[in-house]
Design brief:
This protein is of the alpha+beta class. The protein has three helices and two strands; from the N terminus they run H-H-E-H-E. It is about 35% helix and about 15% strand. It is globular.
Length: about 80
């Protein structure tokens, strides 16, 4: 299971709403962790999950805002992946 970077704008909006609801700081470059759905998924998969891999994607100078921008060939000059098992 993974989240596509092109859907980031949806998660940013949800993160802002979550922060406002609970009086938290609105982050500019990261999302507030919301783990309820993730924990439920891992419990449902039970023994089928032998590892959880956290992948953070960092864009240099350009963040794709939607699928159309990627389809039109608008990409970041550099993309970094931080992977942690």
């Amino acid at each position: 299971m993974f989240k596509l970077p092109i859907l980031t704008f949806v998660f940013v909006t949800a993160s802002v709403k979550y922060a406002n609801k609970y009086g938290l700081t609105n982050y500019q470059y990261v999302l507030h962790p919301r783990s309820k759905g993730f924990v439920h998924t891992v419990k449902m998969l039970d023994k089928a999950v032998d590892a959880i891999i956290d992948i953070t994607v960092a864009y240099k100078y350009y963040i794709p805002e939607d699928r159309d921008s990627l389809v039109q060939g608008e990409y970041a000059d550099e993309v970094h992946f931080y992977v942690k098992r």
